[in-house]
Design a protein that fits this description.
heterodimer; A: 2 helices; B: Four Helix Bundle (Hemerythrin (Met), subunit A)
């Protein structure tokens, strides 16, 4: 399917114009990757905090059960 | 009406952007004047349109916040503007690349469309220092909303002023004497616009969800520690909506 699509497609120019177009689309993708990376880091921090809080809650539960 | 889940939205966005880019390179014909370089149009223009509409949406949420005092609207306004500023960075970079390829220069100072977008972008770049310079959370939200309303009203005015200005340099694509875009280009443009708009919306939803979760975690931590909430202390700089869904 992909091969058939590529066979139908016009050849992409790899001269100056092609370089500029590629640069524009690559910039967009890079920005997106950076943004997703930042969000992933935030999500990881939230997950860590959640684990910490779960641990605190569980230790209190154990203390209560022990007393 | 039930809002679609982040997962559904993410899939729809990926499909739309993928289809849009496929149409750009395999379906839309090369433009007669600019040739292959015009392919940047399908990325640059939707990004610019969505960024500007996002600024206006931020202003609308700010009006709601000023009317109701509900911090959820402030959070929506902040996240809309934040996402639009990021899109604005992409607009400026892709625009500079297009300018260099078409005009031989990275930036043209006597071109109203470029300079006006830069002014809007710089205006919104001052939103962050303004916001975080105010330590009191309620005042911070109120002042930020006033800024968002004023700047949001400036965006369409600015757009109309630029359209009214005569320009011999920047191409007018949609409504020209020659009839504008051919149907194949229109279809490609609309799919790309839908994809970029969908991307903006999902990023806003994602950021709001992350902020809400973060706020709930802080509440939980305070409840476990037995410490008072920051609102009671009257000071706090983080945007923390109680419960959010974008509307």
């Amino acid at each position: 399917m992909a091969a058939a699509l590529l066979a139908q497609a016009p050849a992409l120019p790899l001269d100056d114009a092609g370089g500029y177009v590629a640069a524009a689309y690559i910039v967009f993708v890079l920005l997106l990757i950076v943004y997703v990376g930042i969000m992933a880091a935030k999500l990881a921090r939230i997950s860590r905090e959640l684990d910490e809080l779960a641990e605190i809650a569980e230790s209190r539960e154990r203390e209560r059960a022990g007393s | 009406m039930k809002t679609p889940s982040l997962r559904t939205l993410a899939i729809a966005t990926a499909v739309l952007i993928g289809a849009g880019f496929a149409l750009v390179f395999f379906y839309a014909p090369n433009e007669t004047d600019q040739g292959f370089i015009q392919k940047i149009f399908y990325l640059h223009v939707p990004l610019a349109i969505v960024a500007l509409i996002g600024f206006v949406i931020g202003g609308i949420h700010a009006v709601r916040h000023l009317r109701s005092g509900d911090p959820v609207h402030d959070a929506r306004s902040y996240v809309s503007i934040h996402t639009s500023v990021i899109f604005g960075v992409a607009v400026l970079i892709t625009g500079a690349i297009w300018a260099k390829a078409s005009w031989g220069r990275w930036w043209v100072w006597d071109e109203p469309t470029l300079v006006s977008f830069l002014i809007v972008f710089l205006l919104y770049s001052t939103y962050y220092p303004l916001r975080y310079a105010i330590p009191d959370r309620e005042r911070q939200a109120r002042y930020a909303s006033v800024f968002a309303v004023t700047a949001g009203a400036f965006v369409p005015l600015n757009f109309m002023a630029v359209r009214a200005a005569e320009s011999l340099v920047h191409p007018r694509t949609f409504a020209t004497a020659e009839g504008g875009l051919p149907p194949k280009m229109w279809l490609t443009f609309l799919v790309c616009l839908a994809g970029i708009a969908s991307l903006w919306y999902i990023l806003v939803r994602f950021e709001l969800t992350a902020k809400r979760t973060s706020a709930q975690l802080s509440r939980l931590r305070r409840a476990l520690d037995g410490s008072p909430p920051p609102a009671a202390a009257g000071v706090g700089s983080r945007i923390a909506p109680g419960a959010t869904t974008t509307g």
